[in-house]
Amino acid sequence: MEVTGYFGEVTPPERWSISYGEYRLVFEPLNAHEIVYRRVRRGQIERELLVALGANRLLVLPIAPMPGPIDTGLLMLRLRPPIALGEGAKLSITVRIPLGVGVFLGDRRLDAFSLAPPKYAVYGSPMDGALCRYIELDLRGEERSSLEGYAELRFVNNVGSPVRVSRIVVPSEGLWPYMDLEGEVYFAGVAFNAVDERSAEVVGGLEPPAPSTRPVLGKKPRITTFVMRYGY
């Protein structure tokens, strides 16, 4: 079976080939319980595993866009264009975030990769700042890729004056993926609370924007909190 952008269970004895952009995942059954898994990019095998299923299911699922040469645990979301919030203003917007792809045996992750080329940025000073996976978000609503998921960003300005927000730093665990019955992917919501002109509290793991979704692997995310002390 050859499909594009599929998420769900991979079942032997059929051979599966699933494409995600320049990546292709190949599942070659040896028998009803053993599968050779290969991740192929531009014709080159990047990862290969012999998988004995046992009592577990083999799944391909969306994940937060973290996998790369460096797994930092933090995402910096750069807003294009930035947002201006008046004193006491509240704003909720839905954005599109590139997906990562994970291959799971039961709830154990066997492989993972990101569909967007990994970029990194330092939040804070070069000496003691936090290294983040860097992702630009286009807020202008241009054409959506099928390899993106929706996330709701909720802003509150509790500063006694207007503020400008150009970036958000959130732990990757706070962007846990959900799926609906049609296979559409959503991420857990993120709340941004500006507390002074340089600091903000960012809370992740909130309910996603679509009520009919279920969390991937049946696990609801834990609530995460990150305090931005070096500007936003």
Give a written overview of the molecule:
- It is a single chain.
- The protein is mainly β and 232 residues long.
- It has one domain (2-228).
- 0% of the residues lie in helices and 57% in strands.
- The protein is built from no helices and 21 strands.
- The strands form five sheets. It has a five-stranded mixed sheet with strand order 1-3-4-5-6, with no helix packed on it.
- Strand 5 and strand 6 (44-52) form a beta hairpin.
Topology at a glance:
Elements: E1 2-4, E2 8-10, E3 16-20, E4 23-29, E5 34-41, E6 44-52, E7 58-63, E8 74-85, E9 90-98, E10 100-105, E11 108-114, E12 120-123, E13 130-138, E14 148-157, E15 163-171, E16 177-179, E17 185-187, E18 189-194, E19 200-206, E20 214-215, E21 224-228
Parallel strand pairs: 1-3, 8-13, 14-18
Antiparallel strand pairs: 2-7, 3-4, 4-5, 5-6, 7-10, 8-15, 9-14, 10-11, 12-13, 16-17, 16-20, 18-19, 19-21
Q: Proportion of β residues?
A: over 45%
**Series of secondary-structure elements, N-terminal to C-terminal:** EEEEEEEEEEEEEEEEEEEEE
**Broad shape:** elongated
- Output the radius of gyration: 19 Å
In helices, the fraction of residues equals: under 10%
Compute the number of strand runs: 21
- How do the strands line up in the largest sheet? 1-3-4-5-6
Q: Number of folding domains?
A: 1
